[in-house]
Design brief:
The chain is built from 14 helices and 14 strands. With 389 residues, it is an alpha/beta fold.
Length: 389
């Protein structure tokens, strides 16, 4: 490669360093149900997404291996092919049936990650002449998916459903607009706030739109059965494409989309990240199926993680600190990049692992700490953190 190329990227990296936006990969090892080891020291982990504590729960792992002892020979470490060739091993069917039962027997398609799902669904189901209306603070994967679409798109102000309805009304009066898609997260990953899904479902019905909902941070945590915020708000049947991740509360890897049978088959035929990707390893899919089938046992953990987050929110609000949200994700907005980094270091020095979240992940001037709670955290964690703010 020409020297000018390396010079350019070196200069751009320097700009990131000077702006406090330089990123590095950290080697972090599991050190128990709630702790991790980083740079030779143990920390209480509030930087991950293991909301129910399953990813680090060794008792659950042992239960899984004991239950599938007869299938051990089938627990391969690689699918070695795409699902459309030879990678569609039997554990896929088991998991899709288990998830289908969780979602009132709707059709389910397993995908390799939430990013794959959001990158592939919208380009597959939309076409030129369609219009996609997306919440301004949707995840980067949804934004990247929008940019791959032939359809036009507009981004409505965050949780501003008057603005969304204005855009819907204008679109329905335009004879050149074909299908309209509404796209939102349910629990927003950086602010921890919740969409009003009943309102979105009403707008979907009124304006004959297709509702695409990313429940990545809601599944496992919300709803009587852990099916997510759509279950909790009573609108499961009114979401046309519901995306859930398996790498957060479910303590595994991969993602899924819940939809109607014809739409599932359409995705199988049109969704590029599914068609051109090697499938998930059988052992991973089998573990996920085990977790899904045992979700009824986890109601107490769902309550616990939300209670911990609420207690921390109350501490921050009592001290008039900039926070928000009403989920297991609690932000503490520091403002500038240096302020967020310094605040994160204060927590790290006290043995609490949390990192600064900076632009472009969040808007400029809103660098923050993002506390992600797990149901298996000790009771004293809130008091320990309260001493640091």
């Amino acid at each position: 490669m020409p020297a000018s190329f390396y010079q350019r990227i070196a200069e751009e990296l320097d700009v990131l360093r000077q702006a406090g936006q330089y990123r590095v990969l950290r080697e972090i090892a599991e050190a128990g149900s709630t702790e991790v080891c980083w740079q030779g020291r143990r920390y209480v982990n509030l930087a991950g997404n293991d909301y129910l504590g399953l990813a680090a729960d060794r008792d659950w792992r042992n239960r899984f291996y004991a239950e599938c002892r007869q299938d051990t020979a089938q627990l391969g470490l690689s699918a070695a092919s795409s699902r459309l060739l030879t990678g569609n091993h039997p554990f896929y069917g088991r998991l899709e049936r288990s998830l289908g039962a969780l979602y009132n027997n709707r059709a389910v398609l397993i995908l390799n990650s939430g990013y794959h799902a959001n990158l592939g669904i919208l380009p597959a189901i939309s076409r030129k002449g369609d219009l996609i209306l997306a919440d301004k603070l949707n995840h980067a994967s949804l934004i990247d998916g929008l940019q791959l679409c032939q359809a036009d798109y507009r981004r409505y102000r965050h949780l501003d459903y008057r603005h969304l309805e204005q855009l819907l009304s204008e679109a329905r009066r335009n004879p050149e607009v074909r299908e309209i898609f509404i796209v939102s997260e349910s629990v927003f990953s950086m602010d921890g706030d919740l969409a009003d899904l009943r309102h979105l479902a009403e707008l979907r019905e009124r304006y004959r739109a297709v509702l695409v909902l990313d429940e990545a941070h809601a599944v496992g945590v919300f709803g009587p059965a852990g099916a997510g915020l759509a279950e909790a708000q009573g609108v499961l049947g009114e979401v046309d494409f519901l995306v859930g991740t398996l790498g957060k509360a479910f303590g595994s890897a991969g993602a899924y989309v819940v939809t109607e049978p014809a739409a599932r088959e359409y995705l199988v035929n049109k969704m590029r990240p599914l068609i051109f990707t090697t499938g998930l390893p059988p052992v991973v899919v089998a573990w996920t199926d085990f977790v899904v089938r045992h979700l009824p046992e986890l109601a107490g953990r769902r309550d616990r993680v939300r209670q911990l987050a609420q207690q921390w929110s109350e501490v921050l609000e009592a001290r008039r600190l900039a926070t928000g949200g009403n989920s297991q994700i609690v932000p503490l907005v520091a403002g500038s990049n240096p302020a967020a980094v310094a605040l994160a270091e204060r927590f790290q020095q006290a043995g609490i692992l949390v990192f600064a979240i900076r632009p472009p992940t969040v808007p400029p001037g809103t660098a923050r700490l993002r506390f992600s709670f797990s149901a298996t955290l000790d009771d004293d964690v809130i008091a320990r953190m309260a001493d640091l703010v």
